[in-house]
Amino acid sequence: MITSLFSSAVLGAILVAPTFDTTAVFELSVDGEITIGTDGTVDGLTFDEGLQPVVRDAVEQQVRTWRFHPIVEDGRPVTAVARLWMTLSAKPKGDEVILSIADVRFGETVRMATQPKPPVYPIGALRQNVEGVVELWLLIGEGGKVAATHVYRTGVSTADRFGNKERRLRINFASAARAAAEHWQFDPPVRPGDTVGYRINFVISEDGVAQPNRWIGVHWSDPTPPPWQKGSEKVAELPENESRPMLLSSRIRLVDDVRGRVI
Question: What is the average pLDDT value for the chain, to the nearest integer?
């Protein structure tokens, strides 16, 4: 049940929205980390900074009631830690707010077996002072090695400025990222057949030195799924604020679908 205190706090937050409309549905991203015990219950939960305390407490109370299918390794249930990304939906209704779960996703961060060699910054893009992002999907083979690479989407910082050159810039960034990723290797729990997603950022500092793996603003291309993904297979996408390699074919599965559940 939504308390008056809770409703007032949420309503007060959305009333200051630039385009406040009582007929609109407002959304809020809630990110954090969840620990799932061997019996499928929630053992631990933390949220990233910036969440209103009253909203955080309500969401935590809800999340701790969730039940998951136990994570099994070598025939035995194990404790698992995963990133949690939620989208909350708030619908004003008179003096109250109906807050519900619009979407929820999970992803496991993964470690590389060795320090990866960064991709080579495309010389053409460097000369033109163009920055870029490549979102790679990697099919994992035996021993944690990369069996196949796929460019899910690319972004360049100056799409409008370069016109016809944009396509070549995207290709060059993608080629550089794939060439580096072919030599990467990942540690368990990554297994053969898993899909790992990794966003590689190419950024030029003020002194002109190429510095991969930092956030920039870009114009994205349309995403394309990898050829090894089956039509009915649901694989999570990388959240916009996640720059670490993530296990997209996540083993984290809820017993019940919580989307649409009122908090």
Answer: 81
